[in-house]
């Protein structure tokens, strides 16, 4: 029983990290068909933001909360700059943006290496997040619970925003039918920019959250980006629901297989399972119905 | 080359020139060390030729060629390690990390024939299987790119995790012989270079013949308008699988030659980043041209070797900038710089020499619409409109 609960929680915890990493991707990929390889580096930027903020604000608790806000802005601004300078120019070639943003990722990584140094740095967790909480007889680290709560919060906030705000309506309209949205007077260009800001901002928040799990380095983003992409592929595009289910599912799967084999073998098995899953649902779990031939 | 010559003569003339440079001039003027380095670049160029076929002509953005390169390299390395250990012997690293016994699935690779067959068939078979699974279900575009990348990530993690049988992060290295030839002898190193050069030339010729055939036309058609090809009664999935499999086989052969030439194969050569790095050379050289990927791959590897040693940080910036500038502003690569320039100048796209040529010089349109509906959210009417 204890083993089951702790496995279950390990899976949920991994899933929440994946979800935070993939949420922004789901948004930008869903709307624009753009795969942003620099997304992981936006997370890295968010993590280093937390590191810098902690240098200014000594109190770990206050600095974490401030970092979450500033991390969002840093990630969002980076995304906005990327969208305006490069991605908007390559609108008709979404596959090529993947390579361009990979170039951006390389540059950002090296920049972090030159500014902060190659060795990893640590961000102190606030005292109210140290220790563990006992749930069903299993000790669960408070930092993991915090990340879980943050992921839930991010999902709820984003879905409310998508559902009820004018911007959310515009985003949904653009995802469903870009041409028709444009015809109805929505500036899809402005919507794209805001979506990118929002999605990249979530990456920044994810980066801040990751500082709670361990030390951070220039390659922080690359460790999560591939899994985050897989979440988007499995989840399907256009709705957050898919990303949520996929992130939790993959987290549980990975943790479960890891339990019975090794971590490296689990990665391969998860990949095989994903390919098998795509045989059944090539468009992912949740897809917006279109009249496309695919 | 002069514009008076026909496209056929130009292509084969260029091919002969390349052959003369690789087999005649390079061995004559380069030192043993440089020649060995060039041999390494040629192995990377083999991967690039395959990527040129799959990505440039077939539109499949494969971010996981490192897997097939690595499979070829590791299969060869396993044989070399076993051969070094002698009949019934155990490779040194297994004594170090493992329990000193050779796992059963290693045993067949004591035989040179089995190894060569495995290099030729195993990665190709894996690619065919994966390609069928993915393309038959019409998973494509960015989805395929992500899957191929995830495969590379999983492969590298598996190699690192199973240190007892794969050497872990260190990979496999320290080979003494190559099918009975002593690798410490410079003459045998030269022989390896010649093998690599001939194999690369054969691959380029094979791609040329493939692209001149009906199949080549079909592949480019699938890239540009997959659904239209389907309506004509072909199965686009099969067309793609063939190109993907050939690309995988080329990468595997490149890996198998890379191992003895460089003397090491490790996860650092096969993971996500090296897999994407293969694409830089192809993009720069011109993804849809015949010699572009080869020249691009050799050029980029050469630049990396000469720059990264003295300015490691600068090289990374440079590599990133190359990706950004070339893909964003020169999508067809340097090979088409002349055409872009002529178009700017004269307003007419194709020069006299280009008109007769086929997909051999096929240039991607500035905005291939086919990518657009691949994301799956766009209405077909959108792409149909551009007929």
From TrEMBL, chain A:
Keywords: Amino-acid transport, Cell membrane, Membrane, Transmembrane, Transmembrane helix, Transport. It holds the Pfam family BPD_transp_2. GO terms for cellular component: plasma membrane. It is a multi-pass membrane protein. It is found in: Cell membrane. The chain crosses the membrane at residues 6-30, 64-82, 94-112, 145-162, 194-216, 228-253, 265-282. The keyword Cell membrane applies. InterPro entries: ABC_transp_permease, ABC_UrtB_bac, BCAA_transport_permease. GO terms for biological process: amino acid transport. It comes from the Bacteria. One of its GO terms (molecular function) is transmembrane transporter activity. PANTHER family: ABC TRANSPORTER PERMEASE PROTEIN, BRANCHED-CHAIN AMINO ACID TRANSPORT SYSTEM PERMEASE PROTEIN LIVH. Belongs to the binding-protein-dependent transport system permease family. LivHM subfamily. NCBIfam families: urea_trans_UrtB (TIGR03409). This is Branched-chain amino acid ABC transporter permease.
From TrEMBL, chain B:
CDD domains: TM_PBP1_LivM_like. GO terms for cellular component: plasma membrane. It is found in: Cell membrane. Residues 363-377 have a biased composition (Basic and acidic residues). Keywords: Cell membrane, Membrane, Transmembrane, Transmembrane helix. It is a multi-pass membrane protein. Its main location: membrane. One of its GO terms (molecular function) is branched-chain amino acid transmembrane transporter activity. Residues 346-387 are annotated as: Disordered. InterPro entries: ABC_transp_permease, ABC_transptr_urea_perm_UrtC, LivM-like. PANTHER family: HIGH-AFFINITY BRANCHED-CHAIN AMINO ACID TRANSPORT SYSTEM PERMEASE, SLR1201 PROTEIN. This is Urea ABC transporter permease subunit UrtC.
């Amino acid at each position: 029983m204890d083993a089951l609960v702790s496995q279950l929680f390990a899976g949920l915890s991994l899933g929440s990290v994946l979800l935070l990493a993939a949420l922004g991707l789901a948004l930008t990929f869903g709307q624009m068909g753009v795969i942003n390889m620099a997304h992981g580096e936006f997370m890295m930027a968010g993590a280093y933001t937390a590191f810098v903020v902690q240098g200014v604000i000594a109190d770990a608790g206050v600095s974490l909360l401030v970092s979450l806000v500033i991390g969002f802005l840093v990630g969002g601004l980076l995304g906005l700059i990327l969208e305006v300078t490069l991605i908007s120019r390559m609108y008709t070639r979404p596959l090529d943006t993947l390579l361009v943003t990979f170039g951006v990722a390389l540059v950002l990584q090296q920049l972090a290496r030159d500014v902060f140094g190659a060795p990893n740095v640590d961000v102190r967790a606030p005292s109210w997040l140290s220790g563990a909480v006992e749930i069903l007889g299993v000790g669960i680290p408070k930092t993991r619970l915090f990340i879980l709560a943050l992921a839930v919060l991010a999902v709820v906030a984003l879905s409310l925003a998508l559902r009820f705000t004018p911007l959310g309506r515009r985003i949904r309209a653009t995802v469903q039918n870009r041409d028709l949205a444009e015809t109805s007077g929505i500036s899809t260009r402005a919507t794209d920019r805001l979506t990118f800001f929002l999605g990249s901002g979530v990456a920044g928040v994810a980066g801040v959250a990751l500082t709670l799990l361990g030390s951070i380095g220039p390659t922080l983003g690359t460790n999560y980006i591939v899994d985050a992409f897989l979440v988007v592929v499995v989840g399907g595009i256009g709705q957050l629901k898919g990303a949520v289910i996929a992130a939790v599912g993959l987290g549980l799967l990975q943790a479960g297989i890891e339990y019975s084999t090794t971590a490296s073998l689990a990665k391969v098995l998860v990949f095989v399972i994903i390919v098998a899953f795509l045989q059944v649902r090539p468009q992912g779990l949740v897809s917006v119905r279109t009249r496309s031939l695919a | 080359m002069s514009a008076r010559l026909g496209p056929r003569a130009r292509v084969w003339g260029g091919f002969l020139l390349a052959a003369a440079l690789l087999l005649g001039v390079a061995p004559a003027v380069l030192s043993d060390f440089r020649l060995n380095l060039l041999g390494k670049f040629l192995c990377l160029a083999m991967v690039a030729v395959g990527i040129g076929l799959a990505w440039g002509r077939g539109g499949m953005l494969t971010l996981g060629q490192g897997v097939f390169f690595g499979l070829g390299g590791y299969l060869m390395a396993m044989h070399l390690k076993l051969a070094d250990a002698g009949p019934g012997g155990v490779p040194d690293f297994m004594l170090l990390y493992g329990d000193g016994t050779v796992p059963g699935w290693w045993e067949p690779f004591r035989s040179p024939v089995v190894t060569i067959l495995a290099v030729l068939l195993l990665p190709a078979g894996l690619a065919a299987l994966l390609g069928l699974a993915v393309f038959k279900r019409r998973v494509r575009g960015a989805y395929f790119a992500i899957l191929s990348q995830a495969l590379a990530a999983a492969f590298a993690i598996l190699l690192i995790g199973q240190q007892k049988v794969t050497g872990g992060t260190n990979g496999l290295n320290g080979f003494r012989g190559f099918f009975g030839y002593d690798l410490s002898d410079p003459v045998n190193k030269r022989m390896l270079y010649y093998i690599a050069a001939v194999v690369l030339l054969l691959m380029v010729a094979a791609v040329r013949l493939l692209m001149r055939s009906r199949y080549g036309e079909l592949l480019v058609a699938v890239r540009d308008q997959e659904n239209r090809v389907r309506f004509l009664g072909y199965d686009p999935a099969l067309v793609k699988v063939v190109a993907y499999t050939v690309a995988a086989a080329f990468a595997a052969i490149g890996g198998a030659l890379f191992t003895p030439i460089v003397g090491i194969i490790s996860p650092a050569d096969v993971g996500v980043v090296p897999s994407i790095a293969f694409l830089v050379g192809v993009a720069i050289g011109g993804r849809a041209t015949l010699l572009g990927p080869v020249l691009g791959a050799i050029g980029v590897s050469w630049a990396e070797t000469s720059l990264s040693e003295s300015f490691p940080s600068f090289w990374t910036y440079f590599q990133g900038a190359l990706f950004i500038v070339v893909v964003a502003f020169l999508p067809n690569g340097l090979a088409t710089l002349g055409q872009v320039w002529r178009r700017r100048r004269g307003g007419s796209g194709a020069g006299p020499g280009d008109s007769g040529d086929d997909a051999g010089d096929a240039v991607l349109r500035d905005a291939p619409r086919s990518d657009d509906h691949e994301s799956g959210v766009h209405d077909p009417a959108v792409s149909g409109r551009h007929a």
